[in-house]
């Protein structure tokens, strides 16, 4: 996870914070490896963009976090966010990958199109 975060953080021109939140208990995410300033330590599935990705199992591409109901402001500078669920090959949710940017609408469908298969391949055999 640390290597994946490091590579994505330095490769994407708009990433200000890049990290994993891991499933650590029922309906609970806990911060994992990340690059950038401090992140939220714990996020329930019921709150925020990361929680929505974990709860629904769907990619959350939010061009304006201020317009997202129940957004958790871990950093006041965040303007847009891309959160992708991370599954192993058996269909178990391991966590989410969270990309934050201080640029509005920083993330595109093209970002989703290369990140989703990358995560599937890297974490296929994880448990």
Strand-and-helix sequence, N→C?
A: HEEEHEEEH
CATH architecture label: 2-Layer Sandwich
Helix content: 25-40%
Which residue ranges are poorly predicted, with pLDDT under 50 across at least 5 consecutive positions?
none
Q: How far from one another are the termini?
A: 13 Å
The average pLDDT is 95
- Structural class of the secondary structure composition? alpha+beta
Identify the CATH homologous superfamily.
Answer: GAF domain
Tell me the fraction of residues in β-strands, as a range: 25-35%
CATH fold type: Beta-Lactamase
Number of domains: 1
The CATH class designation is Alpha Beta
Q: Give a short account of the largest sheet.
A: 6 strands, antiparallel
Radius of gyration: 13 Å
Keywords:
alpha+beta; Beta-Lactamase; 27% helix; 31% strand; globular
Describe the structure.
It is a single chain. With 127 residues, the chain is α+β, with helices and mostly antiparallel strands. It has one domain: GAF domain (Beta-Lactamase, 2-Layer Sandwich). Helix content is 27%, strand content 31%. The protein has 3 helices and 6 strands; from the N terminus they run H-E-E-E-H-E-E-E-H. It has a 6-stranded antiparallel sheet, sandwiched between helices. The longest helix is centred in the C-terminal third of the chain and has 15 residues.
